[in-house]
């Protein structure tokens, strides 16, 4: 009860802060949006237009820095992938609202070729438009940091070493690195990719593996995804690297939930269930690797 009351007080204070933002020229109507795991968001109706106000501070335990998220979102908008950021100040970003259907997990499996094309555009275009300091994203470093931060099972470190050893040399690209279904919106004619908190330079193979792990792809869907992204140039070493990266993606997501359970504790989010789900995926995916 106390935690719920504190959350309500915090949400109310944020709502009032959003109402008073200097970008508004008329009274606004706010409605909370569900689904954010590391931020609180409101839909904002203002002068006949609709926006989203994303509220959240830096989260160093998750390597989230809002200035870099904002730079990535701006680059993604310029690449035609994400909505425009119309206002930003410490702790708040205001973006144009995208009318469309937010993905659920099953949608990630519907058309791997379409998603491969989206990721090819991400990897070709976003990094070229990025300005200012940039993050790097290497899932094996994230796993090691998470394990050390909460004293998790050291066996996860051995897994990270083994899965990392299976990787192959690929071009460095700027990736999204958080392809949960809630970060994709279909407006009926095109896909939008939102929430660039974990954006960073690394290997494009992680985005492919992350999409596959989050979408529970089977072997046939994986083959379609890889063939579409790499235009049919997929050898056994690349397939093995992808399989290892897919397992690492699931492990990273499980550890993210464990770290969040210790350091974030947002009411209404079952971090234990999330960790259990992705540990199950990790154990299945890592068999034989």
What keyword list fits this structure?
single chain; 289 residues; alpha+beta; Phosphorylase Kinase, domain 1; 3-stranded antiparallel sheet; 10 strands; 49% helix; globular
Structure description:
It is a single chain. The chain has helices at residues 2-19, 66-78, 105-108, 112-129, 139-150, 155-165, 204-214, 219-229, 236-263, 271-286, and strands at 28-33, 40-46, 49-55, 85-89, 92-96, 101-102, 172-175, 184-186, 191-193, 200-203. With 289 residues, it is of the alpha+beta class. It folds into 2 domains: 2-96, Phosphorylase Kinase, domain 1, CATH 3.30.200; 101-286, Alpha-Beta Complex (Aminoglycoside 3'-phosphotransferase, Chain: A, domain 2), CATH 3.90.1200. The strands form 3 sheets. A 5-stranded antiparallel sheet has the order 1-2-3-5-4, sandwiched between helices. The chain has a 3-stranded antiparallel sheet with strand order 6-8-9, with no helix packed on it. A two-stranded antiparallel ribbon has the order 7-10. Helix 6 packs antiparallel against helix 9. The model is unreliable at 1-9 (pLDDT under 50).
Going by CATH, the architecture of the largest domain would be: Alpha-Beta Complex
In CATH, what is the class of the largest domain? Alpha Beta
Q: What percent of residues adopt helix (DSSP H or I)?
A: 40-55%
Q: Could you tell me the strand content as a percent range?
A: 15-25%
The total number of structural domains is: 2
Measure the end-to-end span: 46 Å
CATH superfamily of the largest domain: Aminoglycoside phosphotransferase (APH), C-terminal lobe
Query: Spatial order of the strands in the main sheet?
Result: 1-2-3-5-4
H/E element order: HEEEHEEEHHHHEEEEHHHH
Query: What's the shape?
Result: globular
Mean pLDDT metric: 94
Uncertain segments: 1-9
Number of strands: 10
Q: What structural class should be given to the helix and strand makeup? A: alpha+beta
Radius of gyration: 19 Å
Largest sheet: 5 strands, antiparallel
Helical element count?
A: 10
- Write down the CATH topology of the largest domain: Aminoglycoside 3'-phosphotransferase, Chain: A, domain 2
